[in-house]
Batch of 2 targets.
Target 1
Amino acid sequence: MLTFVGLGLYDERSVTVAGRDAIRDADRVFAEFYTSRLVGTDLEALEEYHDTTIEVRDRAGVERDPGPVLDAAETDDVVFLTAGDTMVSTTHTDLRLRAEERGIETRVVHGTTAQTAAGSLTGLQNYRFGKATTLPFEQAHGGDGVPDSVVATIEDNRSRDLHTLVYLDIKVDDPHWDDSDDTYMTADHAAGLLAEEFPETLGVVVARAGSPDPAVVADTLPELATRTFGDPLHLLVIPGDLHPMEEDALDAIAGLP
């Protein structure tokens, strides 16, 4: 059996009760933290909270060499942990399909997602979000500024009066959570990049969703680019035209100018 467990958004306590039960009952526990991170905790605290040993796999160990995970799941109850909701990344879907091809039973224990948290924290209506996109670091896509695909996604959503959730790039080079090797794109940096393509456009920053001190700030992209929003993780939402209730929510929650 291979059970995928989403750990939620922030720290070791963000997991659901069902997820904690699955971890408790597992013979072996694997994890990856390169697609996203729980910035409110570390590996040691996770292991202590769940009273287990967690075997962390890097990108190559999940995507190119998943054999140890699948071999274990053929004979034991194995849990595979990720931040957020475990099936948001196609990497995890691929691993699940490989397991099914080998006749390994799989199941999913969901965790809270950044997308649902962004809607909840901002007051923007969930059904009005269009296609999401990820804004990469400039050096990651080999060019300057914002990739055409990101611009096209935002423009298409705005043309249909939909909000765009912009995930911000993270670079995690050490699977064992060496903070010196981690780089997180900040919302002010992202706003500065997007302001070149969408001047005077409204943006909404969501910082540290799922933590005890999340921040939600609404302003034009050029203004957001001049501010700081504290510790990661950050998200950025580019809204479509606001419903009156959404406008009231952003005014009350995010200081809508």
Target 2
Amino acid sequence: MLTFTLPDGSTETVEPRTLLNAGYAGRNQDEVAHHIAELAELGVPAPTVTPAMYPISPYLAQQTDEVHVQHGRTSGEAEWALVILGDTENDVLLTVACDHTDRELEVHSVAWSKNASPDVLGTNAWRLSDVADRIDEITLKAWVGETPIQTGSLADLLSPKYWLDVLRERGLFERGTILISGTISMHPGVDQFADSWKVEMGDPATGNVLTCEYRTILMPAPIG
């Protein structure tokens, strides 16, 4: 079960039933195509269509401050998340998220790489309807260790409305569905591999900030 605290102090609790990770979800799809070409040079397979959407095991939607990893080449991504509580847009929460990804697996399958670690969600949220009229002004930032690695806004990504329409088309606009947005560009030259990640989503109109942060813990070496 996930529990979110809203700005008025009330809480909403929901059991994740469907977890989806958007991919290649930049609003400028020409830039997305350029990014796909860059990833192809690193061996990451190109998607068959953009934007993409990957189903993830629902138990991987977690509110945690620790992520256990099998090796040192894993990293997070600054994202937002939609949490569906009911069947109308007034029943949708918006929160901050970090999609922790196995970069070694990514060269074999993006979907596999995203099922290897949790999607970490914040413990605070806003009702989407309360911020919908200024959604593009909301900022999104990430730090790897103490180093800034991503800086942007929700205007850089396909909008929550776009994805709500997709969920409706697929019969997934229902309580317990969680959709993670896809991520913004990383700063060039920053090492994405470190033992902690922090993502922050801010609303300039109110000064409210949503945060999720965690450290990675290396699992013991296997035998065999």
